[in-house]
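Lay summary. Proteins are chains of building blocks that fold into shapes, and those shapes determine what they do. In this project we predict the shape from the chain. Here is one chain we studied, written as its sequence of building blocks.
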Amino acid sequence: MTARATRRATPVIFKAGCPQCRGSFELAADALRLVVGGTTRTTFYSFTCPDCGTAVRKPAGERIVELLTGGGVSTLRLHSAV
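And here is the predicted shape, written in a compact code that computers can read:
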């Protein structure tokens, strides 16, 4: 996944792909959701494929989290009970 922005006022567009139909497309920040958990297994981003309608969930490492949060993607932070 990569992000592209030409100016601050220009919305960030993310490139993504669907593992189901193998489609490649661009998504606006409001088409993505980021979940940040306490581990790498519980940190992921998701979207619905605009080509086939499949709900896609992919792991998000530190760099992906930085790109998505910096691009205005809605983020849910999970907290664990201590």
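What the prediction tells us: The mean pLDDT is 89.
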